[in-house]
Amino acid sequence: MAPAAASGGSSLPSGFAVFTTFPDLLFILEFVFGGLVWILVASALVPVPLIQGWVMFVSVFCFVATTVLLILYIIGAHGGEASWVTLDAAYHCTAALFYLSASVLEALATIQMHNGFTYKQYHENIAAVVFSYVATLLYVVHAVFSLIRWKSS
């Protein structure tokens, strides 16, 4: 009997098929919006260093991990093994949870911006909040479809 991961539709794509299959196509959007969060948080004035530190950690960690996974999928390092489907689901669930916590904390830090901050600095933080929530949504959608793929493997 063939392994379940070898059946159609439940295995991970290799090569440039990563860019044509869903939910793996979301890697590109996660990369773009995660990078925007990283850039905006890095350039924004830091009202609460501890909160901004967590947001920065999450954005950099997810940016690097998403990039590494994307490259590994493109070169076909997974070899069609079912354990990689589990890794994909676990990573995207963790990233979604991390990004949700970072988004809520970034919104809290932005709300708490009072005196001493310019209009431009406030808008940079608002943009970081918006892009952080977009990244959260992308990771949640990717996690849901990765869990569906994991369950069917």
Quick rundown:
By secondary structure, the protein is mainly alpha-helical. The chain has 4 helices and no strands.
Structure description:
By secondary structure, the protein is mainly alpha-helical. 71% of the residues lie in helices and 0% in strands. It contains 4 helices and no strands. The model is unreliable at 1-8 (pLDDT under 50).
N/C terminus separation = 14 Å
Q: Work out the helix count.
A: 4
Tell me the β content.
under 5%
Global morphology: elongated
Secondary structure: elements and pairs:
Layout: H1 26-43, H2 49-74, H3 82-111, H4 119-152
Helix pairs in contact: 1-2, 1-4, 2-3, 3-4
What key phrases describe this protein's structure?
153 residues, 4 helices, disordered N terminus, mainly alpha
